[in-house]
Amino acid sequence: MTETSLRAARAPRETKAAGLEPLAVLPVFVPLRGKRVVLAGSSGGAPWKVKVLAAAGAHVDVYAPEPSEELRAVPGEIVDGQVVLHERTWSPDDLWGAAFCIGAMEDEAECVAFVAAARGAGAIVNAVDRPHLCDVKFGAIVNRSPLVVGISTEGAAPVFGQTVRARIEAMLPRGFARWMGAARDWRDGVTARFHGFAERRAFWERFTDRAFAEPDRRPTETDLAELLGETEAAPKGGAVTLVGAGPGDAELLTLKALRALRNADMILYDDLVAPEILDYARREARTMLVGKTGHGPSCRQDDINALMVQLARSGKQVVRLKSGDPLVFGRAGEEIEACRAAGIPVTVVPGVSAAQGAAAALGVSLTHRDAARRLQFVTGHDRRGALPDDLNWGALADPSVTTVVYMPKRTLRALLARAVAEGLAPTTPALLVFNATRPNQTALRGTAIDLADRVEAAGLDGPALLMVGEAFSEMRGALPAQAEPNRVAV
Question: Active site at which residues (predicted)?
Fold first, then answer.
């Protein structure tokens, strides 16, 4: 009798994203090249706004009866667009034909009148330092044009927004502007060359990889030729990628895992995958829950294999998203074999394993050189859900070994009792870590002889990992008295 026959089966089911969280404002980008813009007034923010408008290629008419010296200097400082300074008060007739109007005057009544006149002329309106009068608002800008990043805090924390802008500035090489210019120049040719969406997307994925690898050099026609050739030579059709999602913390995803999620057409994921990890998938990707939970209702492995093959044969890029590392007790072998048998290309993106994540969160070395000569990963149950008959008990009892047991909850007491009977010292430090790397991570600490009693008394739940060995003795001495999220309990 197999493990799946002992528990209720369930079918894979498509899931839907919860959708966007509420937005304080809608981020939109307004093309102004060649269009007329009016700015009236000469308050402190006027010069910068004129420069931004001109940088967007607009024809800017500035109406200011007493312009500041800084505002007077702007027409000679612009590098794009056009600025004309009119040293007089604005009139309603000045606003006709303007796509965008900005009021930069100190007087509230005059600003209200300007806004009303601009709206009457059919223009979008912004009023400097008067958010209650604005149709749109300016934010912080990171300029790698045509790559432009806009940042808004909706007035809640402008300094915070400026700090975010500075961080993004540091992350985005200035050379990206050259690559974005090349993308603009090459786009029509690429579209004409590749009629299918999948091939065009593959081209731009290769383009992006090259831009990130060499951001500071200018792309050339040689780059274009190589990218076109690589795309044409690439295998066509669907494929499967097994991706390790890590034990829970989304920040532990690898760059390669992120790329796979952003390229996927279909994502088949397990119950233990943290929901926020799916937020990194491209918006058009469909998601299906193919849950496999220990000792609970689970999708049959044969059904998952068949679904992967079916989707890939239909031309889809399929990501099989697994908690931890797919090659560590993740049944990756069966899924790889199913794909190969069907002639489906399959690759694996490793992830941070639950053992690595738990050890890092606890700040303990699994292979401390004074305590461990070997590290071993063991499964806590067999296909029937029982304690495996063929465990190497001599290896488990070795005092120079750190042992990590996956899926140990049901067999914890029997496993530790048998290990002690086979020679493991009863006082050997032992930990059971729940929800490794997640905000509610909790670890119960004990010894091989008493940990099972502590676990039963605590009544904790969630995916668990058993860690046994003298490597954990260094944690003795500075531990809290009770189990709390992200804590260790004695």
Answer: 270 (proton donor), 292 (proton donor)
Over range 316-342, report the average pLDDT: 93
**CA 484 from centre of chain:** 27
pLDDT score at 488: 55
For 346, counting Cβ atoms within 10 Å of its Cβ (0-12 exposed, 13-18 middle, 19+ buried), the class is buried
Distance CA 490, CA 488 (A): 7
* Contact predicate 147/164, CB 8 Å: no
State phi, psi for 156 to the nearest 5 degrees. -70, -40
Q: Do the bridges between strand 140-144 and strand 147-151 make them parallel or antiparallel, or are there none, so unpaired? A: antiparallel
Tracing tokens 């839907």 back to the chain, one arrives at: 16
Classify residue 299 as exposed, middle or buried by CB count within 10 Å of its CB (0-12, 13-18, 19+).
buried
Give the CA count within 13 Å in the CB-facing half-sphere of 195: 0
Scan for tokens 């008419």, then name that residue.
61
Give the chain's end-to-end CA distance (angstroms, integer): 40
% helix, strand, coil for the chain, step of 5: 35, 20, 40
Q: In a 3-state reduction of DSSP, which class is residue 468?
A: strand
Tell me the CB-side half-sphere exposure of residue 310, using CA atoms within 13 A. 7
- 469, 482 Cβ separation under 8 angstroms: no
* Per-residue pLDDT reduced to its tens digit, 377-395: 999 888 777 888 889 999 9
Q: Which amino acid is at 61?
A: D
pLDDT digits (tens, 9 = 90+) for 221-240: 999 999 999 999 887 888 99
Q: What is the 3-state secondary structure (H, E, C) of 382-417?
A: CCCCCCCCCCCHHHHHCCCEEEEEECCCCCHHHHHH
Q: What are the DSSP calls for 324-378, one per residue?
A: B-TTTTS-HHHHHHHHHHTT--EEEE----HHHHHHHHHT--TT-TTT-SEEEEE
* pLDDT, tens digit (0-9, with 9 covering 90-100), for 68-114: 999 999 999 988 999 999 999 999 999 999 999 999 999 999 999 99
Amino acid 359 reads A
**Beta strand spans in 231-270 (E):** 239-244, 266-269
**Which residues are part of the catalytic machinery?**
270, 292
Report whether 409 contacts 293 (CB < 8 A).
Answer: no
Give 346's contacts (C-beta < 8 A, 6+ positions apart).
Answer: 239, 240, 241, 242, 335, 336, 339, 340
Total residue length of the chain: 490
